[in-house]
Design goal:
- This protein is mainly alpha-helical.
- It has two domains: about 20-180; about 185-315 and about 335-365.
- The chain contains 14 helices and seven strands.
- The chain has helices at about 1-15, 15-25, 35-45, 50-55, 95-105, 125, 130-140, 165-175, 195-205, 210, 255-265, 275-285, 290-300, 340-345, and strands at about 70, 75-80, 105, 115, 155, 230, 240.
- The strands form three sheets. It has a three-stranded antiparallel β-sheet, with no helix packed on it.
- α9 (about 195-205) crosses α13 (about 290-300).
- The longest helix has 14 residues, at about 1-15.
- One of its GO terms (molecular function) is electron transfer activity.
- This is Cytochrome c domain-containing protein.
- Keywords: Heme, Iron, Metal-binding.
- It comes from Commensalibacter intestini A911.
């Protein structure tokens, strides 16, 4: 009996949000300046808040009534109402409560007085790097928006993931609570150091790019060595692309190609963004040119991860020409030599109207 009681007490201690707070250092707090609403809007856009929290089946992305479903291997999550509605949203939250939710993954509405562990489907593992002033400005901006009544359905999760309290153990192991560590500015961008640092901040905190574009383990944690190398979508039915500086990623994209993509959704080879990324583009196209360049030059510094997407051929890492099998039937004869001649030739000339490796000032739109 005593052992059972001890086990129950131990469980509640380990899973308590208070335990995490006690063993992690205090973070910065917002200064006494008035909130910067415009900056709050920028953080809101960069963080893709509306992509998840806007009420589905309506056109106003600033109506943050929640309800969107996210299917994962753990079950189905429903995005909550984060509008300023006092009954169903976060209209009664304090800045301290909002900051704790965004940076620590703890909400104020738990069944216990120590708070409610939030599932990391909400990417607080990235948002933890936001500064206190930016969180304050974000909170102020959200409170300028229209209150929306109504609550999202309860999550539909498999056991044991439906035991929200257990997320406290996950947080103890996988949420470090640290501010963003400085990144060495590459020599190529030494004259744009401030922009590089801004890009580092936007990509690794608000933008939470790694949360989608990385492979995770069975615990939902990004695998070491696979950050930005792409990975399966939460439902396992699709694949997020590799955005690292590898030939299986976006190594051949120039800075301006990345900027153009984040503005228009069009890649250097004229492929249009679809799925979740199409929604992300609706946000990134609202960012300033300076912020887009900051993001682009930081992405160009990310180490390469050699990880072809499923179904794609392995890159040819040899100096030899490799002829891939023809997948689709071509009705029109192409003006090329036969494959037999190409395989035996000492020199092969390839002509393309678009450069594959693009220059710094190229967007990929040139003929």
């Amino acid at each position: 009996m005593a052992l059972a009681i001890l086990g129950i007490v131990g469980f509640f201690v380990l899973t308590s949000p208070l335990t995490w707070s006690l063993i992690h250092p205090k973070r910065d707090v917002a200064d006494n300046a008035a909130p910067n609403i415009q900056n709050g809007r920028t953080i809101f856009i960069a963080s893709d808040c509306a992509t998840c929290h806007a009420t589905p089946n309506q056109n106003d992305h600033l109506k943050l009534g929640g309800g969107r479903a996210l299917d994962t291997n753990f079950g189905r999550f429903y995005m909550p109402n984060i509008s300023p509605d006092k009954q169903d949203g976060i209209g009664n939250w304090t800045l301290a409560q909002f900051t704790k939710a965004v940076r620590e993954g703890v909400g104020p509405n738990g069944i216990m007085p120590d708070g409610q562990n939030l599932y990391p489907a909400f990417p607080y593992t990235s948002y933890q790097h936001l500064t206190a002033n930016d969180v304050r400005d974000l909170f102020a901006y959200i409170n300028t928006l229209q209150p929306v009544s109504g609550r999202a359905p309860n999550h539909e999760l498999k056991f044991p993931f439906n035991l929200r309290r257990g997320v406290g153990v996950w947080r103890l192991f996988f949420l470090d609570g640290k501010p963003l560590s400085p990144e060495k500015v590459p020599a190529a961008y030494k004259n744009e150091a401030a922009l590089f640092e801004r890009g580092h901040y936007l990509v690794e905190s608000a933008g939470h790019c790694a949360e989608c574009h990385s492979t995770r383990n069975f615990m939902g944690v990004i695998k070491s060595g696979f950050r930005y190398g792409g990975g399966p979508t939460p439902d396992g039915k699709g694949h997020f692309p590799n955005i690292s500086q590898d030939e299986t990623g976006i190594d051949f994209w120039a800075v301006n190609s990345i900027i153009n993509y984040l503005k228009t959704g069009k890649s250097p080879i004229n492929k249009i963004a679809g799925g979740d990324m199409a929604e992300v583009i609706q946000n990134t196209k609202q960012l300033s040119n300076e912020d887009l360049r900051a993001i682009a030059i930081y992405l160009k510094s990310i180490p390469g991860v050699d990880l072809p997407a499923p179904g794609q051929p392995e890159p040819n890492r040899t100096p030899n020409l490799v002829m891939l099998p023809q997948v689709n039937k071509i009705d029109v004869a192409l003006p090329t030599s036969s494959t037999n001649k190409i395989e035996k030739a000492n020199i092969v000339y390839a002509v393309n109207t678009k450069p594959f490796y693009l220059t710094e000032n190229s967007s990929g739109d040139e003929d």
